[in-house]
Task: structure prediction
Amino acid sequence: MDLKQFFLQRLSLFFMLTTFITIVICMFGLSLDADARFGYDELLTPVRLAALCVVPTFVTFSRRELSPKKMKMRMALELLLIEVVVLEVSFTSPVIDTSQIAVVFAIAGSVLAIYVLARFLTWLHDSAEARRMNAELVRFQQLHQDRARK
Result:
């Protein structure tokens, strides 16, 4: 994969993560402190967090095709780095009560759930794209064979 394609995938991931993070923050907020009110600066929290979470995904970049084992290792490292980033932000935030272990586990679990969901949606998109390209190749081969017969 070339760098341009990788960056485009990271941009797509950024928007996906921003959406998922916004939903998770809303769910936690409504269930834990529904009466809380925030200023406009908090509106950018999901955007900042998504941007920070995209940075560790660069460990999966490779110009060459990786073996399944190497890719799984890089994905595990990627998840670990994302967990570290999110937990670091959580522990340094005055708004999040990380003194409660349940909150820390909820955050870590949310990161895992978002990671799995994002990977799944990316896989669905990639597999649909592969099916489209294969169908296009079959049509091209048939066209080439039809022209060769004439």
